[in-house]
Each structure stands twice: as C-alpha cells, then as structure tokens.
Amino acid sequence: MMIEKMATRIVYENRWMRVREDDIRRENGTVGLYSIVEKPDYAVIAPIDGDRIHLVEQYRYPVSGRFWELPQGSWENVPQITPVDLARAELKEETGLTAERMTEVGHLFQAYGYSNQGFNIFLAKGLTHGEQDLDPEEIDLISQSFTFDEVKEMIESGSIKDATTLAVLGFLQIKGIISF
Averaged over 108-113, what is the pLDDT? Predict the structure, then answer.
C-alpha cells in the first residue's frame, strides 16, 4: 500500500527530537493525518567477555525506575559521527570499556509505527577496562558484567525491561552469537 504525503509541518522540536505531522492520502483515496517522531539512529553495544556480558543500570525518568540494559546512545549534537565511532564512544562513556574488535551485526527500528529511529547493533570483543566518562544525566549509571544465566534470570524477574535490549539479545541468539 502506498501513502502519498500531501503536506507536512513540524509541530514540536528540541535538540533530541522532532515531531512532524503529515497530511496523507492512502491508495484508496481516503485522507488522514500521520504523526512521526524523528530521532537520529543510535548504537546498541553487546560487550561480551568470555561467558559474561556487560550491562548498565540507570534511573529512567519516564518510567520512574532503575533497570538494567545494554549500553546504548546517540549523539544528537554530532550528526556526522559514524555508527562504529558512536558505538565505541558510548561503550567507553557508559562502561569505561574499550573494545579491540567492534563488529556491526545488524540494524533494527525502534518503533516504526510512529518513529523513523533505528539502531545499529554492535558486538564488542577484546575488552579492556578503564574509567567511565558519564554525561551529567548519566551520573547515577552503574556498569556490571553478568553471566548469560544471570541475564536470563534478570529478564524473567523484570530487572531488564528495555525492549531494545531484549530485541538485541534475541537477535544475537538467533544469529548464534550468544546462547541462553
């Protein structure tokens, strides 16, 4: 089914996102409105060290809780950064880790029913420990490694609720990179 954009307007914008409304016409001739959240793609990193994977925990204001997730992020103020450079920078920033090998293993969309944002998935291997370099909004972030059995228990108990993290872990398992 094809949808034709008739008109578009920005209804909200800040440094992290933009909300656009499009007047549309569907293939059958009916008209409608489509709202789209525009955000830059981000990187999600699976830092694996033997039989352990590194996660981060931080307070997430929109859901008023602390949860574990894979290191991830975007740099809205540096739109020209390459996905692999972003992944390396986010890994170092959030965990203090540097990776000898950073391999891109895929790309998924965050929520393509209302947003154009996607994420590049990276596997980080050959890890070296260093100091975190947290942004002010990440000041309470904790980084720790877990066995895959512990991660499975964290998913079952609800300590991991981040859909991106769950999608990446499932993606990596399907590709045979990890096993629970």
Answer: 95
Q: Sign of the CA dihedral 126, 132, 137, 141? A: positive
Q: What is the pTM for the complete model shown?
A: 0.92
* Cβ–Cβ < 8 Å for 103, 157: no
Q: Picking from 25-29, 132-136, 168-172, which range would have the lowest pLDDT averaged per residue?
A: 132-136
Q: Is 113 exposed, middle or buried (0-12, 13-18, 19+ CB in 10 A)?
A: exposed
- The pairs formed by 165-168 with CB atoms below 8 angstroms and a separation of 24 or more are 165/44, 165/55, 165/68, 165/69, 165/70, 165/72, 167/108, 168/44, 168/46, 168/70, 168/108, 168/121
CB of 46 closer than 8 Å to CB of 171: no
